[in-house]
Amino acid sequence: MEARQPLGNGGPEASPAAGKLRVIAGKLLPFMLLYSNLKLLHILCAAASLMLFIVRGGSTVLLAKVLTAQIWKWLPPAVDTLLLAFGVWLAVLLQLNPLHVTWLGVKLLCVIGYIVLGVLAFRLRRPRWLKVGLFTAAILLFGFIASIAVLHDARGIFVLAG
Ligand code: HEM
Q1: How far, in Å, is the centroid of ligand 1 from the Cα of 87?
Q2: CA 34 to ligand 1 centroid distance, Å
Q3: pLDDT tens-digit series, residues 108-140
Q4: d(C-alpha 119, C-alpha 134), whole Å
């Protein structure tokens, strides 16, 4: 006598709906794994980038001590490159076009502003008050960028003001 397959075991007698569900789960699971790992790496890089920026800026701008160790030459640009690369990868994965998705477009413009402020703050021949101002503005802009990302809104943290 032929043994009956228990229901929902995914065997040849499984319903078409269960088959469809299996196909969706088979595609969704790798996507979710890739998405959550990429997002975690992106966030970790953002945190590392901010910490390095604060240490470097604190030393150069506030204490007027230029960090000369070799690591300061390659680590911050390496972390920033990874941050941007994971961000672009996430956007491609989620099919978000910055020309159509306002919050992402504004976020990218702010990222450019953050880079420019950082470069200007670290230029040596500038009055100290200007360097401190540029450095502080860069950190505030970084916080604004993170708030745009978390809230998915181009107004960032200001959306909470109503
Ligand atoms: C200073 C630079 C950046 C910072 C501080 C930053 C910060 C963040 C944070 C905190 C999140 C997580 C948001 C959440 O909890 O859902 C996030 C997500 C994301 N970021 Fe960035 N990011 C930066 C640069 C970029 C760049 C250059 C891109 C390139 C297109 C990008 C694209 C994305 C995308 C697509 C997400 C996923 C949004 C989602 O899950 O729906 N980011 N970012």
Answers
A1: 6
A2: 15
A3: 999 999 999 999 998 868 888 999 999 999 999
A4: 9
